[in-house]
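User:
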Amino acid sequence: MKGYVLTVEKTVPAPPEVVFDILTDVSRHHLIDGSGMLRGAKVATPQRLVLGSTFGMGMKMLVNYSTLNRVVEFEDNRRIAWKTGPTGFMGKLMGGRVWRYELAPVDGGTLVTESWDITPDPQRVLLKLGDIWSGKTRRDMERTLERLSVLVAGQGASDSPDRT
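Assistant: Predicted structure:
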C-alpha cells in the first residue's frame, strides 16, 4: 500500500470495451467480487453506470448491510471509480472509500488496475493498519481480477466462478 492507496493489476484476455461493460453493469458485480461480501445490486440501480450515477449494493460481513455508491470518475472504456458511503454530514464521519478500475489495451487483452483508495475516508488510518496486518483487501482484489479474467474469457459468463 502506497500512502492510502492499494493497487493490484492483471492482464485479462479481452478488449477494454468488454471489461468496461462488466464494470459499468452493477447487476454483474457479484460475478467478479473476490471478497465474498457482495450480495447484489439494490432495486432501482441504473442499467449502465455513468459519471454521477448512484447505486446501492447489498453486502454481508457478519451481518447484512447496504452501501450507497456514487460514480466519481468515468472515462469510457478506460476508467471508472465509485465512492462508497453517505454524502453530507454523515460522509464526514464514515465511508469515503474509492474503488477504481483503470483499463489499458495490451497484447493479449487489457491490463486492469484496481485501486482501493482510502485517502478521503475519515477512518483511513485504522483501515490501513488493519489491512497491512491482515492483507485481506489485497487478497480479495487479486481474487476479483482473477474472477474478471475468467468471466471475460467466456468461462462461466452467466455463472459465478468458484469462490475460494
